[in-house]
Amino acid sequence: MDVLIKIKDREGVVHDLQAPTDMAMNIMELCKAYELPVEGTCGGMAMCASCQCYVLNDIALPEMGDDEEAMLSEAFYVKPNSRLGCQIPITESLEGLELELAPES
């Protein structure tokens, strides 16, 4: 099953993305699959913050782990609604999630 996730890129364009829930993907990988400008330099290990995004609506996300919290404490442009895309697995509960890509550091 696919879920709809809306991602606003750094130019302000909103992309409606169909995200498969059966491929063990995360938000960073989804962005890369749709060729949105997300580097994912560390390969999804919560070690670079190049996939930082802002959560724009009230969708329940997995709790932030220690690695993600530590990386965001050192990253640029962090807001209270910041998350690392690589740490958000795509599941059916993300239907309707709205995100905005953080500025590149």
UniProtKB/TrEMBL annotation:
Keywords: 2Fe-2S, Iron, Iron-sulfur, Metal-binding
SUPFAM superfamilies noted in UniProt: 2Fe-2S ferredoxin-like
Domain of life from the UniProt record: Bacteria
GO MF, one example: metal ion binding
Gene3D superfamilies: 3.10.20.30
Biological-process GO terms, alphabetical: P450-containing electron transport chain
Name used for this protein in its record: Ferredoxin
Source organism (scientific name): Flavobacterium psychrotolerans
